[in-house]
Design brief:
By secondary structure, the protein is mainly beta. The protein folds into two domains: about 1-135, Leucine-rich repeat, LRR (right-handed beta-alpha superhelix); about 180-284. The protein has helices at about 25-30, 270-275; strands spanning about 5-10, 10-15, 35, 55-60, 75-80, 95-100, 115-120, 135-140, 155-160, 175-180, 200, 220, 240, 260, 280-284. Strands 1-2-3-4-5-6-7-8-9-10-11-12-13-14-15 form a 15-stranded mixed beta sheet, with helices on one face. The radius of gyration is 23 Å and the shape is elongated. The termini are far apart.
């Protein structure tokens, strides 16, 4: 029975889960799109990548060295359940995005110089002593426990999750701070950077919010947040309330345009009447 080996989509070639052949015979195919998505069974050396290919997405069984990738590759993404464990210390410096699989537990001693986006896997446990100087996005996974003291000035997005409970020296240009829902410890929001525009709190965060940078435009409260909000940033435009938020808003800043809240919030009808210029979006 004939099996389809690949599909050509808008911006990528998607190889089937059972495809596991050398790419040498597929040059005409892979030269058509910038993204190659390899399925579950693919485990071949990446020797025939054409100059147009910018991103490779690698499936569960891929486990070959990536030391000899061509300079045109800018993004490497492993699926979360990948079995890959080879060292990644010699990736070319043109790599801008690296997304690790959850089981990757090999220490990376050197990251690509021009790396802009780094997502660590759930089980990555090794300290990073030197970050790439152009890094813009960092997700530390669930088991990174070391202080975040030497983050580069270029960093714009920081995602904290899992068991992290240590010191953070926020870069001055940070714009997005996300405390993942699965963050087990409550990190107090002190010394936040002055350019922060988005703040998302973990489900376990329950400190009173009484001082935030005025630059923040959007706040998303974790589902278990039950405290009050004492002070609002002057630029706040959107607010997402938690399941347990029960307080009445005696006053809201004129800048707010949207509030997301759960349908059982007891003051919803009153707020609709009091603040006609705010759009209240209910969540079930």
């Amino acid at each position: 029975m004939y099996q389809i080996e690949y599909n050509i989509e808008k911006d990528r070639i998607v190889f089937s889960d059972n495809f596991n052949k050398s790419l040498g015979e597929y040059g005409d195919i892979i030269s058509q799109k910038p993204i190659l998505y390899f399925g579950n069974d693919f485990n071949q050396e990446l020797l025939y990548l054409t100059p147009n290919v910018k991103q490779i997405i690698l499936g569960k069984k891929f486990n070959k060295s990536l030391d000899s990738l061509p300079d045109n590759i800018e993004s490497i993404i492993f699926v979360s359940d990948s079995d890959f464990y080879y060292p990644l210390n010699s990736l070319n410096n043109n790599i801008k995005e690296l997304v690790l699989n959850d089981n990757y537990d090999t220490k990376i001693k050197r990251f690509p110089y021009y790396l802009e986006k780094l997502k660590l896997g759930k089980n990555y446990i090794y300290e990073i002593n030197e970050y790439p100087p152009f890094l813009k996005y960092l997700d530390i996974g669930e088991n990174y426990l070391y202080p975040l003291e030497n983050l580069p000035p270029s960093l714009e997005t920081l995602i904290i999750g899992g068991n992290f409970n240590n010191f953070i020296n926020y870069p001055s240009n940070l714009k997005y701070l996300i405390l993942s829902p699965n963050l087990t410890n409550s990190i107090q929001l002190v010394n936040l950077p002055p350019k922060l525009i988005y703040l998302s709190l973990s489900d376990n965060y329950n400190f009173m919010i009484d001082k935030l940078p005025d630059s923040i435009m959007c706040i998303s409260l974790g589902d278990n947040y039950s405290g009050e909000i004492k002070v609002y940033p002057k630029c706040l435009v959107k607010l997402k309330l938690s399941k347990n938020f029960k307080y009445y808003f005696t006053e809201l800043p004129d800048t707010i345009r949207k509030i997301e809240l759960y349908s059982d919030y007891i003051y919803l009808e009153e707020l609709n009447q009091k603040y006609p210029n705010i759009e209240f979006i209910t969540i079930n």
